Structure prediction request, 205 residues.
Amino acid sequence: MLWLLVRARDRDTVAGDLHEEYLLEVLPARGPIRARLWYWRQVASFVSPVMLGLAFGAVLGVANLIDTAYEPLSDDSAGAMLTYIAILVGVWTVAALAAGRRRQSFRDAIVAGVLVGGATLAMCNLANYIRVNLFLDAIRDREDWRNLMARYRESHVQSLRVFVNYDYLKATVAVTSLGAAAGCVSGVVGGAINALMTWASSPSR
Prediction:
């Protein structure tokens, strides 16, 4: 995994330094279990916010596809949406916190939040394209599609599939921007948490 995440020119150096620190410092001080957890955290720190966002968005998108396949006419409840949003914000905040801690930089936390948020919703939007085209005949009768179907009938477009894909395409920039904006807020929160943790652990305090 480390070789996949690190640039080719840095692989030997990074892997060697990490292994040396693991064997000589971390393992004797923390024991095998905590040392292995430390090692995994170091490897995870090389995952870029964009990669994390794309992977997270892909997981959510696949989950949405599976849910639609089982219950195509089921509307999302308020509780489910709140849970979904809480998970998004939580993951983005943790990613921003990790990025900020790596260099003790508030700016890095914000940038990470923007990137992971935008990438997540961009991938979710792509999954929605697939969902719409796979299950169009079933989900066209959903309650939350009532307004979209009304706009379709008023548009005089011959194909519902063409209309829906165009409608989703128009929303791509807005959806990605929304993810970046929400990720920015998560980045601010992650940066603030990191700053508080640094202040609390400061010897001068």
Observations:
- The chain has a mean pLDDT of 88.
- Residues 48-200 form one domain.
